[in-house]
Structures are given as structure tokens and as C-alpha cells.
Write a structure and sequence with these properties.
heterodimer; A: 387 residues; alpha+beta; Enolase-like, domain 1; Cytochrome-c3 Hydrogenase, chain B; 2 domains; 3-stranded antiparallel β-sheet; 15 helices; 49% helix; 12% strand; globular; B: 112 residues; Alpha-Beta Plaits; two-stranded antiparallel sheet; 3 helices
């Protein structure tokens, strides 16, 4: 049986970021897939160990624009652990609130993108309209729509008052109603069911074996949520239980995100009610007081995010910094999902893991199932395009 | 065949005002904490250079004008984190509200 290679990317209308996938196709069905990562490698880990800790916070914020709060929160926690600093309780609550707002806007964004990719433009517009009110909330609290620059080593940079609390609660209560309506649409709309249900199946065993994280793993029935397993910030004091769906298809992964929207809103409301008064940041020395190591794991919108830092005594730069992002962990899983699907379903499946390739790029990846690696030079690509 | 449940929302939106604004003519209100173009108050500045030292984007340089050393912010490099405002001992850097910063030349991008 001969198969044809279908090359998607690095620059392709179906992908939002430069990444190349070689699909081996048989008719309309994908037999095998070979990803090639590394087009947006920026050498951030090396750059981090050449800058001071304060500058590092702003550099990790730019690893990924959408989950920027997740990155700064993880970096701040890792560096605080290495420094031996305990942050005030109020700042932990503020961090949780902004982190969850960040998750809300990230999930609304990807839900809209998936709706657009499956050809449901109305819902795409509605999701993005609702995302705007969250962006306004983030701007009100942090001072900017996207790049929040909110977390810092030793606490947070801005406080919130009574006015902000009432604003957030008002917006969230009206948004919750709309999200519930969208959930109903996702449950029974024939277009969405036809394009998402049963597409891109990933079994629980495969998800575990391939190390899937975040909503991808939870959509396959894996109970993996850092907020529950290893509570950080204020999650040990608020009630939260992980959202699990057992279907393992694109639809389940989207439903996990929709339910997480509602769960996040409850977390924010609970944090606003319970928030203690007090200082929001503590002074932290510029240089590391000890040679130590700090690890921080959090649940970013796309899954488990790990920052690992080694400090050197009396040095204001980290000795080594390591970041492990969720999309990188999900790439083997998405390759498994794509096998056996139709070409038309490729964009929806790719988007269902909420890929963030600028987070991902740091090494080449070889598909372990096929065990082979093929390099196509630019000339053969050109020849192919002329055929 | 059932009517999709979204159809009511679609009809309601037809009768509503658009959710978007006509940008150059109409502008959205900015939040109080918005971080826009810098406002430098040279009379307060003591020329200590802390802002230039801390800037994560290397956007601030200390320049001597008529014998007085004061910061210059290159908006082309600036990431608008306002760490400079945090460290300034005299409060000489203030957050401005201006956000339309496009320009034809690099010289115009420098706040003096």
C-alpha cells in the first residue's frame, strides 16, 4: 500500500504558528504523522541565565503571550523557593485570581478558534466577544490587556480594592450565564456533534503512556490536575475538583475547557470572598542568599507547567533555568490522535490540544512509533510543489 | 429537525448595538492603572540611574543634557512593565495614558 506525503507547514493557513507536520495519507485518511518542531526556538533558557532575576520574570512572561500569568507565577514561585522567601497570604490570593482570569481568557480564545476551524463562525464571534470583558478585567487589575506584569518575586505588584471586587463579581455572574448557554449548545448542536464527537480519539491508556497533560489528559479520563494534586498559591484554601470527561475525543476536550470556565469563576468568587487583608509583597534580596534549587509546578491553561531554577550564592543571575511547557508534553499525544482521522479533521484535532508552539520549541522530535526520521531538503520540496 | 438553540442569541444580536467600536473615531475608556507612554519629570530626577539598571528590555539610557543626567526611554524597545516606576526613589517616572505610539522615525520614539 503506497501512501502520499502531505506536508503542512511551516507556514500554512491552518496553523497559527510556524510548525511543520508531514502527514502520510492513504486517500483521505491519515496513516502516520511526523512533526518537526523548532521553527520558533528563541534560546530563552540561555538568555534567562544571563539576566538578573528581576529581568527574568519579564522574559519568562514572553515565553507564551497567552498564558503569561502562568509563566510569571511559576517563575516567581520557583525563585522564591530557592531564595527561601515566604510571600504574604493576600498576594497568594491575588495571584490565584489573576491566574484564573488568565485561564478564562485562554480557554475562551481556544474555544472560539476551534469553532472557527470547524466552520461555526457565529459561536466564534460570540466567544471572542465574551473574552473581551475578561480582557477588560485583566486591564483593570494589572494595567494591560495581555502582558500583565503582575507577579513578581516576593508577591504581586498591584492591589485590588472594593470597586474592583464588585466589578469582577458583576462581570463573572453575567458571563457564567452565557457560558452555561454555550455549554448547552455544545451538548446538542448537530454541527458541533458531527465535527467533534468521536474525532481524534485518545484512549485513557494511550494518554497515560504518552504523557499527556492538562485538558488533553482530563478529556481522556485521566485525573491529572496540579491544582488538586499539589495545591499551590491559594488552591489549598479554596474548594476545587478536577473536571474529567471520559470520551477522549475533541468534543470531550472542549467540554473540559467549558466546565473549567465555570469552575474557574467559582474559584475567583471564593477567593474574592475569603481574601485576607495585609501586605501584598515582601522585599526580596537582589542576589541569591544561598546556592539552592527551586522547582515549581502549576496548572497552566494548557496543562502542567514546570519551572526549575538553580541559584548560585551571592549571584544575581540564575545558574541554570529549565522550563517544561505543556504543549511539548502533548505533541506525542496529538500525533496519536491524528492517526486514522480524515484530512479535514486535522485543524480541529490540532487545535483541541490548544497548541502553543512558541512555548514548545526547544528540540527536534522523532515519532517513536515509526522510528524513522527523514529530512526533506528545499529542492525536493520545490520539486514536489511543481508536480 | 430541531432548531439550534443558538438561534435565539443570533436574533437578539441582530437587534443589539454592535459589540465593537469604530476605532479611530471612537475610543474605549482606559483603566486607571493603564500603562502607556512614559511621562518623565526631569525636575524631580536626581540622575541615580536605577531605572536604566533595572530595565528588562534595556530601553532606558542615561544621557547628559546641559550637565544634568536624566533617563531617555526608547519606546521601540520598551515592554511597558513600569519596573522603572517601581524603583524610582523620587517618583520621576509616571504612567501616561497615550497608547498610539506608531511613528515614522526612530528619533520620535524616544521619550526625553
Amino acid at each position: 500500500m503506497s501512501s502520499i506525503d502531505l506536508i503542512v507547514g511551516p507556514i500554512h493557513p491552518a496553523l497559527h504558528e510556524p510548525e511543520r507536520f508531514v502527514f502520510k495519507i492513504d486517500g483521505e485518511i491519515v496513516v502516520d504523522v511526523e512533526p518537526r518542531l523548532g521553527y520558533v526556538h528563541r534560546g530563552i533558557e540561555k538568555a534567562l541565565s544571563e539576566r538578573t532575576y528581576i529581568k527574568d520574570i519579564y522574559l519568562v512572561e514572553r515565553v507564551c503571550g497567552i498564558c503569561n500569568v502562568a509563566h510569571t507565577l511559576t517563575a516567581a514561585q520557583a525563585i522564591e523557593q530557592a531564595f527561601g522567601v515566604e510571600v504574604p497570604r493576600r498576594s497568594k490570593y491575588l495571584r490565584t485570581i489573576v491566574h484564573e482570569l488568565n485561564r478564562l481568557h485562554s480557554h475562551l480564545l481556544i474555544l472560539g478558534v476551534v469553532c472557527e476551524l470547524i466552520g461555526f463562525d457565529t459561536l466564534f464571534m460570540l466567544f471572542w466577544r465574551d473574552r473581551e470583558v475578561i480582557m477588560d478585567l485583566i486591564e483593570m487589575i494589572t494595567g494591560n490587556r495581555v502582558m500583565s506584569a503582575y507577579n513578581i518575586i516576593g508577591g504581586v505588584r498591584r492591589n485590588i480594592g472594593d470597586f474592583e471586587v464588585t466589578q469582577i463579581k458583576g462581570v463573572l455572574s453575567s458571563l457564567a450565564k452565557r457560558v452555561k448557554q454555550y455549554k448547552k449548545v455544545f451538548m446538542d448542536d448537530p454541527t458541533i456533534r458531527a465535527r467533534c464527537a468521536g474525532v481524534g480519539y485518545l484512549s485513557r491508556a494511550k494518554a497515560l503512556a504518552l504523557g499527556a497533560v492538562g485538558p488533553t489528559a482530563r478529556g481522556s479520563g485521566l485525573e491529572l490536575d496540579v491544582r488538586v494534586d499539589e495545591p499551590y498559591a491559594a488552591y489549598d484554601e479554596v474548594k476545587y475538583c478536577a473536571v474529567i470527561y471520559n470520551d477522549g475525543d475533541v468534543w470531550a476536550r472542549l467540554m473540559v475547557r467549558l466546565d473549567e470556565l465555570l469552575a474557574s469563576m467559582e474559584v475567583i468568587n471564593e477567593c474574592l470572598d475569603k481574601m485576607p487583608s495585609g501586605p501584598i509583597r515582601v522585599p526580596v534580596p537582589e542576589a541569591a542568599p544561598q546556592s539552592a534549587e527551586g522547582v515549581s509546578v502549576i496548572e497552566a491553561p494548557r496543562g502542567e507547567l514546570i519551572h526549575h531554577v538553580y541559584t548560585k550564592r551571592d549571584d544575581d543571575k540564575p545558574f541554570r533555568y529549565r522550563i517544561r511547557t505543556p504543549t511539548y508534553a502533548n505533541i506525542p499525544a496529538v500525533c496519536e490522535m491524528l492517526k486514522g482521522c480524515y484530512i479535514a479533521d486535522i485543524p480541529a484535532i490540532l487545535a483541541s490540544i490548544d497548541p502553543c508552539f512558541s512555548c514548545t520549541d526547544r528540540a527536534a522530535l522523532i515519532d517513536t512509533n515509526s522510528g524513522e526520521k527523514r529530512i526533506i531538503d528545499i529542492l525536493s520540496l520545490a520539486r514536489r510543489s511543481k508536480k | 429537525m430541531r432548531l439550534p438553540s443558538l438561534i435565539r442569541e443570533v436574533w437578539a444580536n441582530l437587534l443589539k448595538k454592535p459589540a465593537t467600536v469604530k476605532y479611530p473615531f471612537e475610543k474605549l475608556p482606559l483603566s486607571k492603572t493603564y500603562r502607556g507612554k512614559h511621562e518623565l519629570m526631569r525636575d524631580r530626577c536626581v540622575g541615580c540611574g536605577l531605572c536604566a539598571k533595572i530595565c528588562p528590555a534595556f530601553a532606558i539610557t542615561m544621557r547628559s543634557v546641559y550637565g544634568k543626567v536624566s533617563p531617555e526611554v526608547d519606546l521601540a524597545k520598551c515592554i511597558f512593565c513600569y519596573q522603572c516606576e517601581d524603583v524610582c526613589p523620587r517618583g520621576a517616572i509616571k504612567r501616561g495614558k497615550e497608547y498610539e505610539l506608531a511613528s515614522w522615525s526612530r528619533n520620535e520614539m524616544i521619550v526625553r
